[in-house]
Amino acid sequence: MNGRHTGRTDLPLTARGEERAAALGRRLAGLDFAAVYASPLERARRTAEIAGFPSPHITPLLREFDYGEYEGITTAEIHKMRPDWEVFKDGCPGGETPARAYARALEFIALAAKHNGCVLAFAHGHILRTVAVAWLALDVTVAAGLQLDVATLSVLRDGDHGRVLAVWNAP
Questions:
Q1: Rounded Cα distance, 31 and 63, in Å
Q2: Is the pTM here over 0.90, yes or no?
């Protein structure tokens, strides 16, 4: 991982990413899911495959943010041009707005809700953080405060008192 924003660039998993995906697979082994979804990008599809889910439903709803003019550059490079830039507040020129990503997250939640049972999703950091705040009906800017590492487990569920973030960023 080199810290570059890659929402449209279809990169393969790194060796470390493959190791993390295998570890996630061991954690998920034996669990049943009503549906498994993945982003169309190779790194998400490959993570699903290594984790033991070789045929996920592919949906563009789980694609990473479209970084527009910021595709391929790092946050540090963006901050040289715009010191106060934050993706969940400002979006990306020529790319996706936070509001559009949030709407996409809501669309994925609605898609997942059509299944009776647990749904598993393989995707990317910024869109998954957006799904989490959309699940909780929070403002998209809250997603900036959620750290999400590669190939970790997070659980969003309906709790006794409504939607909850039951597990977040568990290795």
A1: 25
A2: yes
